[in-house]
Amino acid sequence: MGTVVSIDVRTPLPPDRLDAAIAAAVAVLHRADADFSTFRADSWVSRLRRGECGLADCPPHVQAIYRAAEACRVRTGGLFDPGWRRDGTLDPTGLVKGWAADAASWALTRAGATIHCVNAAGDLRVRGQAAPGVPWRLGIADPARPGHLVAVVESSDLAVATSGTSEQGEHVIDPRTGTPAHHLASVTIVGPDLTLADAFATAALAAGRRAPELLAELGSAGWAWLTVDRAGGVDTSATFPGTVIAPGAAPTRPPVPVATPTPVSPPRSAPTSTPVAASASLPVSVAVISAGGSVTPSVPARR
Known about the structure:
metal-binding; transferase activity; 28% helix; ApbE; magnesium; ApbE-like_sf; single chain
């Protein structure tokens, strides 16, 4: 996956239970990297692409990801296409990052850390509230103005995924034309499932002017979205759970300046345990902080 993941736990837990919860989530993330990374020659994705094995030879969760990718291809009319690569091989990584963050969130929940934010380089899963009576505040970056926000989402128990060009340039290919998608600068999807949100954010970026038409299906199911076009124009669904920030306006509470969505939360007390960071040499770096605020990713995502 080649990305940075931060874990912000707000559940008050004894140190041993907190450490166990974090370890479970980190194990899930490293397993995802080992299975799905296109940068690792021994991953299942790489082996499948070289024809060394078939999908039936893969573990059940790998098979499930490929089935999910195919289902998203069908639902998006081919705009999310795991089969579109210049070398002609399958690549499901357009939704793996969201799936891995969701899986890490479930691992935390099962271990008792039920109030948390998992931030996989801008794909976020939050559960519970940032503080009693205080929702999570998630900043959506302005793709045209580094260090500024275009919107702030305030909610609990949701997933937020953004696909855009500010970090990686025109990296999303329109499968219909084989050329980079260029009409939209970013798409943010808000809903209950980070895997699906990740896939639809990518598909909507490829859809360009057709994005609202594509996203109508999600909107009818209670999902929400925000798009920013190349001219800086912002469009949202009627149900978007946040505030759009006018160009040049300052948010009511200063956000952390970032290039991808990140938690924007009120100051908290000191962590109950020492932050633990994974080795920087690992393809997936994990920064952990407990009960003390968010950790901002230090490098852009690479799918």
